[in-house]
Write a structure and sequence with these properties.
Largest sheet: none
Number of strands: 0
Shape: rod-shaped
Order of helices and strands: HHH
Distance between the termini: 51 Å
Length: about 180
């Protein structure tokens, strides 16, 4: 231990100011004990450079472990999103196929109905000219309704696709934001 003041000079100063040699030495020894006790207390609260480096290495290894865990979680979440996206694509393709089948079926039904109406018109001449125009109007209305329904289905499919894509993007961005 080093003292940062001259104890002998302090003893001499105390003697010059009226203390005896024994009193001066007792005061200086008490001051030295107090300083040593204070220094001991300070040293107890301090860490050595080696201890600090060990603690730093432990913290860095924990950070490395957490980083690895985060990378693993990010990859697994990304693959889960990818598989969910594939499922949605397959469902969308199935819906598209069903819509196309329905359109083909409706077209075939309309063609059949149209051919039946044409054959009846040829048989009935004058009276059936009016019936033909009425039938043509019905067919036009049905075709327009079917086109409207088809456009509505297309719009609904586009809405669901857009909603699914935006949902996937929102979830992906949310996870991305959480991990970064």
């Amino acid at each position: 231990r080093r003292l940062f003041f001259d104890t002998h000079a302090l003893v001499c100063l105390l003697e010059e100011n009226g203390f005896t040699t024994q009193q001066s030495e007792v005061i200086v020894s008490a001051l030295v004990k107090i300083m040593n006790t204070n220094v001991d207390m300070i040293y107890k609260d301090m860490v050595t450079k080696v201890q600090q480096e060990i603690a730093l290495q432990q913290v860095m290894s924990h950070i490395g472990g957490v980083k690895k865990d985060m990378i693993i979680l990010e990859k697994s979440e990304f693959s889960a999103l990818r598989s969910e996206n594939e499922k949605i694509k397959l469902e969308l393709q199935q819906i598209k196929k069903q819509v196309m089948d329905e359109i083909t079926k409706v077209r075939a039904d309309n063609k059949l109905n149209l051919n039946l109406e044409k054959s009846r018109v040829k048989e009935l001449h004058a009276q059936q000219d009016r019936a033909l125009t009425q039938t043509d109007r019905k067919i036009d209305t049905e075709v327009a309704d079917l086109k409207t329904m088809l456009e509505s289905h297309k719009l609904d499919n586009i809405k669901y696709l857009a909603g699914s894509v935006f949902t996937c993007l929102t979830v992906a961005l949310g996870f991305y934001r959480l991990w970064i």
